[in-house]
Specification:
Structural class: mainly alpha
Membrane topology: Multi-pass membrane protein
Strand content: under 5%
Pfam families: MotA_ExbB
Main location: membrane
Number of domains: 1
GO biological process, one term: protein import
InterPro entries: ExbB/TolQ_transport, MotA_ExbB_proton_chnl
Shape: rod-shaped
């Protein structure tokens, strides 16, 4: 029995050595675009998901950064104007400041004269709308983080199918029959994981930025209600 297994091992080694000797030498520094193209049609949705992820991450970051502004300076200016009873000046400052906080305060200023509870409710409602605007499209990153590795896994299955089809068609088992399928398998799997990781990191990073923004808006809303009570 041991002799039989030794014969099989020797035959397999001879087959592999023959295949390696016959296989063309491929340069190690293969261009990235050529390597990606070997992934086949599965790379199309992966590249599309990658592009969408990068766009959302950049667009949302710039939007959140622009919306953040300088809440301390803005609220100090509002406080100074309210102490002077300059309601028109406060409304003008809100109109000239393009930020969620300014729109919240402006809504509260327009409700002055009503009970404080109604003013607070109006400010909170505007805040919810502004938060929804900040979170726009961020959930898409979560979806991409889930489906990109799955699409890469589909490429893995296609690569395995190619390997077995090549073996069945040639009735041979060697590097030439395995290499093409392994290209598809490994390239699509790696790309799917990379896209998924980028989307996952972008989703949580942007969510943290939004949470910080919400915390600042809530503090400023409380400060605004305190200013109304003091006046």
């Amino acid at each position: 029995m041991s002799v039989f297994f030794l014969q099989i091992a020797a035959t397999t080694a001879d087959t592999v050595n023959t295949a390696l000797a016959a296989a063309p030498i491929v340069p190690a520094d293969v261009p990235l675009i050529d390597l990606l193209l070997r992934g086949g049609p599965v790379m199309i949705p992966l590249v599309a998901l990658f592009s969408v992820s990068i766009y959302i991450i950049i667009e949302r970051y710039l939007t959140i950064r622009k919306a953040a502004g300088n809440p301390d300076f803005f609220m100090n200016s509002i406080r100074s104007l309210m102490i002077k009873n300059d309601l028109s000046g406060a409304k003008l400052l809100c109109a000239q400041t393009a930020s969620p906080l300014a729109r919240m305060v402006e809504k509260g200023l327009r409700r002055i004269g009503l009970p404080l509870r109604e003013i607070e409710t109006s400010v909170e409602n505007v805040g919810k709308i502004e938060i929804a605007r900040l979170e726009k499209n961020i959930s898409i990153l979560g979806i991409i983080a889930g489906i990109a590795p799955m699409i890469g896994f589909v490429g893995t299955i296609i690569g395995v199918i190619k390997i077995f089809y090549s073996i069945a068609a040639t009735q041979e088992f060697g590097i030439p029959q395995v290499a093409d399928g392994l290209y598809v398998k490994l390239v699509t799997s790696a790309t799917g994981l990379i896209v998924g990781i980028i989307a996952h990191v972008g989703y949580h990073w942007l969510s943290i930025l939004v949470e910080r923004m919400v915390f600042r808006m809530e503090n400023s809303a409380i400060e605004f209600m305190d200013i109304l009570q003091d006046n």
